[in-house]
UniProtKB/TrEMBL annotation:
A Pfam family matched in the record: Abhydrolase_6
Source species, domain of life: Eukaryota
InterPro entries in the cross-refs: AB_hydrolase_1, AB_hydrolase_fold, Meta-cleavage_hydrolase
Lineage of the species this protein comes from: Eukaryota, Viridiplantae, Streptophyta, Embryophyta, Tracheophyta
Ranges where the AB hydrolase-1 domain occurs: 101-336
The protein's name: AB hydrolase-1 domain-containing protein
Amino acid sequence: AHTLSLVHNHILCKRPTLREMASMKLVHLFRRYLSIALTLFQSLFSRFFDFPILVKLADSFLSLYFLAFCDLRPVTVDLDDGETTVHFWISGHRRISRPNLVMLHGYGGNSKWQFVHQVSDLSKSFNLFIPDLVFFGQSYSKNSDRSVEIQARSIVGGLKKLGCVQGGRTSVYSISYGGFVACKMAEMWPEMVEKLVIVSSGVGFTQQQKTAEMRKHGGDCSKILVPQTPMDLRMLVKISMNTGLTFVDWVPDFILSQFIAVMYEKNRQELIELAKNLLEREEESELPVISQKTLIVWGDKDKVFPLEHGYRLQRHLQSSRLEIIKGIGHAVNIEAATTLNNLITSFVLSV
């Protein structure tokens, strides 16, 4: 056991690739000119923008991308509790030679919007199972429980119905809020979860730490996590990324309002309750006991869950290693997707 700790419990630093940095600069330039064009377009056709057609169209294009270029298909699973429906994107052609990988998103849209930069590469190495967490995207429940445990039970229930646990164990990759769910899955179903990848997640945050972080961002983090206005959404992106000017700086307010309407309005109250349950509940005095090999990934400029928490989590999990990506904020899955994909693939496929 001591040898295992020495092998797995270490810290490495990575930098985003030159391709990622150049790509982000081009994207920002393109979005700036696109913003100007869209604003002019709206001024000419403003009466047509009461309905969020642009964001719905973009969401449909993402679905087409998942289907046509990533060999993924949508599946909706009704759980045995008779109250919960979980929506998944899963590999269309599962291969025995490939391990299963579950991908758990955080706050900020549904699974498509959060994993769009990753699914193409990861689908070449894994059988993917990508759920919308309950009350996100197309997943819903009549259950009044807003705990992380009910999220974990819902995801595992859906995975069992999809046959994910047949023919071997599975690994779970999670970001931010999804990390809480992944750790609960690893605790409650150790026979199912083989390896964990935890990215930028505040698992084990004490009440004192939560209070300190909330004060930094104005006191009401649920308002930022579940934005109501374009200003709220800009704040969410600003604290999540470390690339200076982000795409929301160039996107007109009317498009951000459409995004909020599509992503948050249907289950707004439930999403707020999920956030408050996470932020206000007294965290366990000890971090979760997880025996699985774990890869922890953190951006050194994370303003949501500061890097020192990544160190704390790594010290606690004996069979773990911490990868620090230089110059990257909370949204590692967006700012350094290629680097993150390489880390996930090498870790999960390693013996």
